[in-house]
Amino acid sequence: MTKVSILNLIPKFKDESQMDAVGRAVSLAQFADDHDFSRYWIAEHHNSPAVLGAATDLMIGHILNNTKRITVGAGGVMLPNHTPFQVVERYATLNILHPGRVDIGIGRAPGTDMETAKLIYRNIYRKEDFKNAIKEMQMYMSDEAWDLDVAPFPGAGSKIPLTILGSSETSAHIAAELGLPYSFAGHFAPNTIGYALGIYRNEFKPSKYLDKPYVMLGTSVNIAKTKEDAEVLKKHAENISLQFMRKERKEFMKLDPDNEPELTSMEKFILRTSKGLTIEGDIDEAAKTWKQIKEEYKPDELIGASYIPETDVLIDNYKYFEDIVLNG
To answer: What sign for the dihedral angle of Cα 129, 124, 176, 8?
Structure first.
């Protein structure tokens, strides 16, 4: 059976406080904790007032403190912004406080714009550099780390699970070679899902961490009970996409039916042709979409992202998502 999980960028909307946004993230995590979601990931992003996951490990700690069971991790740590040593220290500390509930998704992108990246990017990781940095993390978390002259404490022997994140073929090659789980951002790169997953599955080398390929697939999720409510969520999602497209450095706007943004012909074309992998619509439509995704890509786990500002609507959306994936 396919597992189901949540990816949260902790969106911040206009006319709400930052604590309101964090509170919504906690409420969603508590809902997931009480249901059958496998993990709750927070994404690292910088220089955006619309998302609050910049200090990812601190936010993960807050979510862990307010939940009991669910695995909480990074989706992901943008490794070029950090040293492997520091990442291991910080996440191993979380693992001491919440044993067995922490994992780490590792990405190669900066998670921000180029100007901000100049301030926080420690290294421009090429394929081999990235692969070696992951091996360094694995070494620091192994039992052998206790014998190193310099080792992370906490960290040595922690064996925190790693997953490789990606939206291109490069990450697929790396995940396969290292024998690690692979999380593909289908909601960002829908046109290369099949190609990247094919590379990963065909090239996978069993390791002490994983004996066969394990695929997580990212999708946007906007599901409502009725077609009318689903259409509202669809328009809201398009509005969020429009803000990303325009690179507007401001908080997300809530949908205002009486004052919808005007789209240029090019924006309409881009929204129509570059839409990421999405499960949306009413329950029946969403279930049909999931069936198609399942048959085509056969993911071991589906991780859904959503930018719905109303907590009750957000939770209902994920309630339908959970039921469709686990019972569909």
So the answer is: positive
